[in-house]
Design goal:
This protein is 31% helix and 16% strand. With 394 residues, the chain is of the alpha+beta class. The chain has 2 domains: 1-83 and 248-258 and 362-394, no CATH class; 90-235 and 273-349, 3-Layer(aba) Sandwich (Beta-lactamase). Strands 1, 2, 3, 4, 11, 12, 13, 14 and 15 form a 9-stranded antiparallel beta sheet that branches. The chain has a two-stranded antiparallel sheet with strand order 5-8. It is globular and about 55 Å long. It starts with 7 loop residues before the first helix and ends with a helix.
């Protein structure tokens, strides 16, 4: 639902806003021409009216070496972006949920090859319908926890026509109701036969509740967010933080206009705690999470996962056949990340314009957050990543 308009004057002010670069203690990083160019690129996108604003950060060898802001959280209010602006991170939530699940895997709470129906009996009777005109049939094998994490379960995406027509997902239903809804819709194919990006990670969130006996949001807060110092990450934005919540914009009639993606906004506590898409976060918070992964499961003396677990999670986990069908050069890891099979880089993005990637070879973490639909206007991510990569050896 569109709400209000933004005028050319607001964009002009955004054009004049200077980039705020954060203090690096490494002069070489601070003076990096490539990073200056990366910051200038963000400013150019603001000036051109392609995004309202952005926050970005780079960490090298465990130290945050650069953070920059450009543009506005809210164009109408002329509220500048700040280092700790809060963003809807959508599918970057998936990696967080995957880490939480693997913490429990290390404790022996489940096996990756356990059938999901072992813990969620509603999955016992799922059927496959590969074409609309085909008769439903039993799947060739059961969906496993591994299938949920690798998106080889046969489940569909939340925005698919199929799931929309069946009203599978809404932020005002409970997680058990979501599970009841999703099993009523046939699988798209047999488990294990195809990578299909899906709602599987929200099902994984419900499994975490069953394995722990705790609500997902409480488990994440107690076991992950607080230990890592992720002070602004959660499933909604409470009143005291709302002044830092960014507005989502979409282009319309030659300008950027605010858009509400959800019927239940992120300023309200949702009934549905979604492991797939439900989190809000900041660049500093997510940088700590990503750095923990790059460090092999540890940050500032706090160990979240074993190093061998993280290594397994951040490698391609797809079979050769499924990988080849996906395109061959880009795999998928249990951490719910894309994995470049040639370089070992990994990361993922979100519907509303956020992205992270880790480069193990150069020990670099990069985060870029905007609030934009489309999520990647005019190839911003690729252009920004190229400049950060150029700075990787400096």
């Amino acid at each position: 639902m569109m709400r209000g308009l933004t005028g050319a004057g607001a964009v002009a002010i955004a054009c004049a806003l200077t980039i705020a670069a954060a203090a690096s203690r490494d002069p070489q990083d601070q003076q990096s021409a490539s990073l200056r160019d990366a910051g200038a690129l963000l400013q150019q996108y603001v000036s051109d009216g392609k995004i309202a604003g952005a926050v970005a950060a780079v960490a090298r060898r465990g130290k945050t070496t650069w953070i920059a802001t450009a543009g506005f959280q809210d164009l109408a209010a002329r509220q500048p972006m700040r280092d700790d602006s809060i963003f809807r991170i959508y599918s970057m939530s998936k990696s967080v949920t995957a880490v939480a699940a693997m913490m429990l895997h290390e404790q022996g709470r489940f096996s990756l090859d356990d059938p999901v129906a072992k813990y969620l009996p509603a999955f016992t009777d799922v059927v496959v319908r590969e074409r609309p005109d085909a008769a439903p049939r039993a799947p060739a094998r059961a969906i496993t926890v591994r299938d949920l994490m690798l998106h080889t379960s046969g489940l569909e995406h939340r925005t698919s026509d199929l799931y929309r027509r069946a009203h599978v997902r809404a932020r005002d239903i409970t997680l058990p109701q979501f599970v009841a809804n999703i099993v009523r819709v046939p699988l798209m194919e047999d488990p294990g036969t195809r990578f299909r990006y899906s709602e599987a990670t929200t099902v994984l969130g419900r499994l975490i509740e069953i394995w722990t006996g705790e609500p997902l949001d409480r488990f994440l807060d107690d076991r992950l967010f607080r230990p890592l110092g992720m002070v602004d990450t959660g499933f909604w934005v409470p009143p005291e933080r709302r002044s830092r919540l960014t507005t989502v914009y979409a282009p319309a009639d030659g300008a950027l206009k605010p858009i509400e993606i959800e019927e239940v906004p992120f300023t309200e506590k949702p009934a549905l705690v979604e492991g797939a898409v439900g989190l809000v976060s900041t660049v500093p918070d997510y940088l700590r999470f990503a750095q923990m992964l790059l460090n092999g499961g540890e940050l500032a003396g706090v160990r979240i996962l074993r190093a061998d677990t993280v290594e397994t999670m951040t490698k391609n986990g797809l079979s050769d056949a499924v990988l080849a069908a996906r395109g061959g050069s880009m795999g998928w890891g249990l951490a719910n990340v894309n994995v470049a099979t040639d370089t070992g880089e990994y990361g993922w993005d979100g519907t509303a314009g956020t992205i992270f990637w880790n480069d193990p070879a150069h020990q670099v973490v990069t985060i870029l957050m905007t609030q934009s639909v489309p999520a990647n206007p005019d190839g911003l991510r690729q252009r920004f990543k190229a400049l950060v990569s150029q700075a990787g050896g400096e």
